[in-house]
Amino acid sequence: MTIEATRARSKFRVERAVGRYFANPIVRGLGRIGIRTTFATDLETLGRKTGTIRRVPVSATFDENGAWLISQHGTRSGWAANITADPQVRIRQGGHWRTGTARLMPGDDVVARARTFASHPAFAGLTVATFRALQSDPISVRITFTHNDSDERRT
Questions:
Q1: pLDDT tens track for 128-155
Q2: What kind and span of H or E run contains 89?
Q3: Using a CB cutoff of 8 Å and minimum separation of 24, what contacts does 31-35 make?
Q4: Measuring CA to CA, which residue among 98, 75, 100 is closest to residue 87?
Q5: Could you give phi then psi for residue 148, rounded to 5 degrees?
Q6: Which of 11, 26, 72, 115 has the most neighbouring CB atoms within 10 Å?
Q7: Which Gene3D superfamilies match (predicted)?
Q8: Is the pLDDT of residue 1 over 80?
Q9: How far apart are CA 152 and CA 142, in angstroms?
Q10: Do the beta carbons of residue 68 and residue 116 sit within 8 Å?
């Protein structure tokens, strides 16, 4: 294994642990009491092994036809692997759930995409730096909305 691959793997393990045991529980807890942040929203996938609904906080940027996400660790992240197995997802947009089909977009420019996540153009550099600090093998993910109904439930 190369030094770069070893660093990426180590970075992935640390970032995954921080997300799983610190950041994600805080974002989830705040969401449960009604406090939402513009930096994170909920993505719902079906577990590729269990078939159960999995919900994870993610950063997303929305347009009228769908949303863009960046999987910082490519298909090593659980939610990206779940999308590979079943691309039907739900994502929270504000206070409503939207249904869509997700696709990994390996040809997309992740750095340019990360700039679109900034709340203001002046913050684009900081946004890119933050994504870069947390990523090991990033890939853009496009969710195309399949329904206009914002409150449907997955069965």
A1: 777 676 667 889 999 999 976 544 445 4
A2: strand 88-93
A3: 31/57
A4: 100
A5: -85, -20
A6: 72
A7: Electron Transport, Fmn-binding Protein, Chain A
A8: no
A9: 20
A10: yes
CA distances from 5 to 2, 8, 12, 139, 146 (A): 5, 5, 10, 16, 37
pLDDT tens digits, residue range 28-64?
676 677 766 556 789 999 999 999 999 998 989 999 9
- Cα 12 to Cα 17: distance, rounded to the nearest angstrom: 8
Q: In terms of Cα–Cα distance, which of 71, 67, 68 is closest to 80?
A: 71
The two three-digit tokens of residue 109, written as one number: 């420019």
Using DSSP, how many helices (H) and how many strands (E) does the chain show?
5, 7
Rg for the chain (alpha carbons), in Å?
15
Comparing CA positions, the residue from 80, 62, 48, 51 lying closest to residue 117 is 62
| CA atoms within a 13 Å half-sphere pointing along the CA-CB vector of 145 | 18
**Do 45 and 58 touch, CB atoms closer than 8 A?**
no
- Looking at residue 82, what DSSP letter applies? H
Q: What is the pLDDT of residues 64-122, one digit of tens each?
A: 999 999 998 888 889 999 999 999 999 999 889 999 999 999 999 988 888 888 777 78
The CATH superfamily label for domain 3-145 reads Electron Transport, Fmn-binding Protein; Chain A (2.30.110.10)
Partners of residue 139 on adjacent β-strands: 71
